[in-house]
Amino acid sequence: MSRTDATAACATTREGPAGLEAIFCPKSIAVLGVTNSPGTVPHDIFVNLLDSRFNGVVYPVAPRKRHIAGVRAYDYVLDIPDPVDLAILVFPGNVCEMALKQCVQKGVRGAIIISAGFREVGPEGLAREQRVCAIAAEAGMRVIGPNCLGVINTRPDVRLNASFARAMPAAGKIAFLSQSGALCTAVLDYAAGKNIGFSKFVSLGNKADVDEVDLLRYLAEDPETSVILMYLESISRGRALMQAAREITAAGAGAKPILAIKSGRTAAGAAAARSHTGALAGSAEVADGVFEQSGIIRCRSIEEMFNTAQLLAYQPLPKDDRIAIVTNAGGPGVMATDAAVANGLRLAAFAPATTAKLRKALPAAANIKNPVDVIGDARADRYAAALDAVFADESVDQVLVILTPQSMTDITAIARTICEIRDRYRDSGKALVCSFMGARDVAEGIEILQRHGIPHYILPEWAADAMAHTVRYRRWMNREVTGFRTFEVDRARAAQVIDASPEGYLLETQALEVLAAYGFPVVPWSLATTADEAVAAAEKIGYPVVLRAVSPAVVHKFEMKAVVLNLPDAGAVRDAFGAMRDRLLKTIRAEDLAGILVRRMIPAGKEVILGINRDPIFGHIIMFGLGGIYVEALKDVTFRVVPIRESAAGKMVRELRTLSLLQGVRGEPPSDIPAIEEALLRLSQLAGDFPRIAELDINPLIVHPAGEGCHVADIRIRLAPPG
Amino acid sequence: MADPQVLERVKKVIGRVLGLDPAEIKPTDHFIFDLGAESSQSVELVMGFEAEFGIEMDQEKALAVQSVEAAADFIAGYLKGR
Questions:
Q1: By the 8 A CB rule, do A221 and A17 touch?
Q2: Alpha-carbon separation of residue A99 from A111, A121, A361, A420 (angstroms)
Q3: How many domains does chain B have?
Q4: CATH number, domain A315-478
Q5: Which residues contact A141 (CB under 8 A, 6 or more apart)?
Q6: Is domain A3-225 annotated with CATH 3.40.1360.10?
Q7: What is the structure's pLDDT at A630?
C-alpha cells in the first residue's frame, strides 16, 4: 500500500511547513525509551543530543531508571513537569502507539519516530504505522519517520542532533533529505571529509506523515538553507512534489535549487504493460521527465550531487554558459575544455583588453587564449594576474582554475591568492571553482579553498559537470513559461467510442475514430469483411493501399504478419486479403477477426513514437521517442507528466539522442518537427480529457519533410475499467 | 484473572532480571513501557520463567507476551498442560 493510501489524512490536513518548527527548533525534547546501554540506538541518540549542546532542555523517559547519562529520568512523558515540544521515540515499534498516545496527552507538538517495526516488516507493521499516524493526525502532531535515523539542525541557536549519526556536521547552507538512513551516515562522513556543512539533515524513514513535499516547503522558507538535496527511493505525492518544486526553484530572488537522486523502481505497471510506452515507462525514465518538468536537478551519484550543491550554495549563479579556464598544465586544460563542451558549456571568447592584459602579464610561451595556460612553472603571481584579467572580462560567466603540483608550484600560496581574487570579485556574479589535481601534495591547498567556500574537484571533468548543472538551473529560472495550448476537438465523438467500450484494447477502427476526433492526421480507411469489400474500399480510397487485420487477438501486428503494405491494384488487394485471412485464422478464432482495414499507404518518412501511460504516482504520462519496431531496444525516449506546455513539447523532441535524424542528415530534408509538437500537445489534451486511457501507443507516427506534416501509421489504445 | 501464585513467582523473576522490587510491579505493567525492559532483557525474562517453572516455552510466542499478567496466564497454560 502506498504512503498516500495509508496516511492520506495526515498529509491532506497538515500540508505545508506548519508544525515542523516543533521538530526542527524545539525548546524542549523528551526522548522516550532511552536505555543505559552504550552502543545502542536508544542510548546513543540521547547522548548525541547532549553532545550537540542542544540549546534547550532534554528529558529522558526511561521507565524505572533514575537517570540516563547523568540526567534525571522519568517513567512516563506525562511525569515531565514542563511542556515538551518534541518527542523522540526510540521504544521498540510495538510500544510506540502507547508512547505516542501519552505524548498527545502531554501536548507534544512534533515527534520523530526512530523505531523500526512498521510497514517495512509487513502488513502487521503497516497497520501499526497507520494507527500511529492516526493518533498523531487527530492531535495535529507532525511525525517524521518511523524507521529513520533522525533529524539534525545545525542552526547555532538550536544545535539539534536528534539522530544516531556519529557526529554533528558543521553548519552550512545545504539541506539534505534522505529516504535511506544508512546513506545519511555515509553522507555525513563524506561531507565532513570535504568540509561541507549542512543547514538541516533529515532522514525521512517510512514517510508515514512528513514526506519530501512537506520538507521542501519547510526548507523553502528556511533562511539557513540555500540548496536542497534529496535522496528518494519512492515518491509519495507525485503532483504535489512537482508543484512544490516548481514554486521553490523558480521563485525569483528567493529561489532555491533542488538536487535529487531517485533510485529504485516504483512503476508497478511497467512490468505488466503490453504497450511500448508502458514497457519503457520505468520509474527512472519517468523521474527524468518529472524532474525536468519541475526544475529539479537530477543527479546520478552522491558525488555529482555534492559537486553541484557546493557550487550552487557558495558561488553566484552564473548568468550564462561562458567559462574561462586558467591552468598551469596543458593536458588537463584540454581535458577540461572537452568536458565543458561535452556538457554544453562554451569557452568564453576574451575581449581584446583581456588578451592584452594576459599578454603583458604572462611569459611568451603562455597561452593567452582560453584555456589560459600560465605554464608549469607558474607561481601565485602569475595565477593572480591571469585571474584578475578573466574576472574583469564581461564575456566570462564562470572561472575554472586548474593546478598540477610541480616542484616549483607554491600550492598554498596559489590557493590563498585564489581566495583573495574570489573576495575581490565577490560582486562580479561570476562563479569560481578549482581543480587542484592530485592528492597528497595538493591537500593543504584544497583545505584552504574549501574553508573559503570555493568548490574543489579532484577532476576538471567533475568541475565542468557541476558548472553545466548550474547553467541549466539558470536557464530553468529564466525560461519562458508557455501556456497549455488546446485545440478545437470533437470530444463527444471520442467519448462515444470510449464511454461505450469495456476495459481492454479498442479495435484499431475505434482507436482511429478517437484520434480523428482529436484532429490527429489519420489517412482515409475502411473496414472490409470480404475481398470484394476490400477492393471496393481500395478503389474509393485510391492506390496504393495497406491491409491491416482488426482483431482484439492481434496486438503486435508486425509480429503476427497482420499487415500487408503497398498494394498497387485490385488484384493485389484481393490476393493479399485472402492470404492474410487464411493465415490469421490458423492462429485466431474467426469471431475474433472483426475484419481487415483498408487504408491508404502513407508515404515514407521518419518513424517516431508518441505514447500515453498511467503512472501510479504521477497519473498520465506522455512519451516521445524514436519509433518503429526497435523502440524498446533503442530506448531513445523522453517522458513528461500530462498536461504538457508548448515549451515542453518542443523540449521533448529536442531531448532525443537521435534528434539529428529529424533535423536531416546526409542531405536529407529536415522533418516536420512542429507537426510532431502539435501531435504531442493534442495527445496531452486527449489524455487529460479521458482518464480511462490506461495505455496508448502511436507507433509509428510517420513524419514527413518540414511543412508536409505527419501521419498516424499505427495506433493502440487500452482502456481502464469504467468508473 | 491470573493465578495469584503464578503471578507472584512471575513478579519475582521480573524483579530479579530487571533489578526491581517485586512489590512495585503491578499485574498490568507492560514489560517495556512500564518496567523499562530492554530488548536483551526480554530473552533473559523468558529464560528466567522457564527456569522458575521448569517449562520450555515457544520462544516466538513467549517474546510476544507484553505484560506481567499476560505472562502469568501464558505460563499457567503450560503448567496446566503438564
A1: yes
A2: 11, 20, 71, 55
A3: 1
A4: 3.40.50.261
A5: A19, A103, A104, A108, A109, A110, A111
A6: no
A7: 74
Under an 8 A CB cutoff, do B39 and A92 touch?
A: yes
Over 70: is that where the pLDDT of A336 sits?
yes
Is the Cβ–Cβ distance between A57 and A28 less than 8 Å? yes
Residue A5 pLDDT > 50, yes or no? no
A42 near B CB under 8 A? yes
pLDDT tens per residue, range B26-69? 999 999 999 999 988 999 999 999 999 999 999 999 999 999 99
Domain coverage including residue B14: 4-80
Residue A78, chain B, CB below 8 Å: the answer is no
As a whole number, the mean pLDDT across chain B is 93
Calculate ∠ Cα A32-A38-A39, nearest 5°.
Answer: 100
The answer on pLDDT for A479 being more than 90 is no
Alpha-carbon torsion (A93, A98, A104, A106), positive or negative:
negative
A:B CB pairs within 8 Å? 32
Instruction: Say if B70 is an interface residue toward chain A (CB within 8 Å).
Output: no
Residues of chain A with CATH 3.40.50.720: 3-225
d(CA A446, CA A455): 9
Contact B38 A94 (CB under 8 A): no
Q: Are A371 and A294 in contact (CB under 8 A)?
A: no
pLDDT of residue B53: 95
Q: Which residues of A touch B30 (CB under 8 A)?
A: 95, 98
Hey, what CATH topology would domain A606-719 get?
D-amino Acid Aminotransferase; Chain A, domain 1 (3.30.470)
Q: What is the CATH number of the domain that holds B11?
A: 1.10.1200.10
| Pairwise CA distance, residues A72 & A65, whole Å | 9
Residue pair A27/A157 in contact (Cβ under 8 Å)? The answer is no
Supply the ipTM of this predicted assembly.
0.93
Helices (H), A455-604: 460-478, 491-499, 508-517, 531-541, 570-584
Q: Which residues in chain B touch residue A62, judged by CB atoms under 8 angstroms apart?
A: 36
**A563 with A601: CB under 8 angstroms?**
no
Q: Answer yes or no: is pLDDT of A9 > 80.
A: no
Q: Which residues in chain A are classed under CATH 3.30.470.20?
A: 606-719
CATH superfamily of A524-600: ATP-grasp fold, A domain (3.30.1490.20)
Beta pairing class for A86-89 and A110-113: parallel
Whether residues B33 and A98 touch (CB distance < 8 A) is answered with: yes
Of B30, B33, B38, the CB nearest to A35: B38
Q: If DSSP codes are grouped into helix, strand and coil, which group holds residue A621? A: strand
Give A600's strand partners.
Answer: A545
